[in-house]
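Something for you to look into today, if you have time. Could you write out one complete protein record for me, on any chain you like? The space below this message is yours for that.
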Amino acid sequence: MTEAIPRLKAAIHSLKKLTKSELTELKSIKKPTITIYLLMQCVCILLGVPAKKAKHKSPMNKHDEDWWAAATSKEVLGNYQLVDVLSNFNPERLDHDIMKQLDDVSSNKEFNLLNITKACEAAIGIFHWLKATENYFYVYEECKPKRDALMLAEKQILVHQDEVKHRLGALKTLQDKLSELRDEYKAKE
């Protein structure tokens, strides 16, 4: 987590540098390169925006899915608050099914920073955010059993502390009673 959190924060910082005109430039692409298409497909998957039905078949529109139409919709690139949406995205809410979809898309050999950089300057920050989000998820999942064990141990400590307090209270009561009995005994002597 010590590596994943700073990477995610750095990616969010680069996202926040995206201007409205850069996002408009990205949205106005009529025929995106495969790299840009795949990037925006990943963003749609993360945001839970489904693909639109393809109007015509193309190499990028497999299975009658048009991810570019989904990406240019009001929910993604058409959302004037997209940078805030991505910046406030919680990678802890992701699951293995979503990550499997992302892995299927991002495993394409064309999907890399060099090709993103060549295709569109505005997409670089989004690419860094995507990769940092993926990394955070895997680190989070790796740490989850340890974090869960820690939370369980902390709960057990609280239970034991309560038990100790209860027993100390009972001990105090017994000590007070013993002291009282001693005083009565001394008084009778």
About this structure: The domain at 4-143 is CATH 1.20.920.60 (Histone Acetyltransferase; Chain A). The mean pLDDT is 85. The beta strands are 52-53, 65-66. The two ends are 70 Å apart (CA to CA).
